[in-house]
Amino acid sequence: MKLQMIPMRVLGDERGSLVAVEANQDIPFPIARVYYIFGTLEGVERGFHAHKTLQQVAVAVRGSCTMVFDDGKERVELELDSPAKGVYIGTRIWHEMKNFTEDCVLLVFADQHYDEADYLRKYDEFLKFLETT
Description:
It is a single chain. This protein has one helix spanning 123-132, and strands spanning 3-7, 10-13, 16-19, 33-38, 46-51, 56-62, 65-70, 75-80, 85-89, 94-98, 105-110, 119-120. It is mainly β. The chain has a single domain, classed as Jelly Rolls, CATH 2.60.120. The strands form three sheets. A five-stranded antiparallel sheet has the order 1-9-6-11-4, with no helix packed on it. A five-stranded antiparallel sheet has the order 8-7-10-5-12. A two-stranded antiparallel sheet has the order 2-3.
């Protein structure tokens, strides 16, 4: 599965901490889009899609959530609970997000601009896409 934990470079001193993120260094691709998810209500699950070509890195910069990844052969659950680590999500990976804490802010770096045509929003279509590519 095209997943990899990405350590963030935490800098700081007695005043506090800072994480600087640079494309093609900390993030393994050029960054075309950045977005964040916040204010997710208790019990709400999100995601439920895959991308044909988009690559992403997700970081819980505050709070935590569980991410579920599926490559059509295996499912893996990871807890994102630190602004000092992210997860690289490669292409063709179904992902779901759940167990958001009330204060969760999930920051995502993507290598492409938004393109609805890149989404696979139904799990059976995702599996069919994997079989034909």
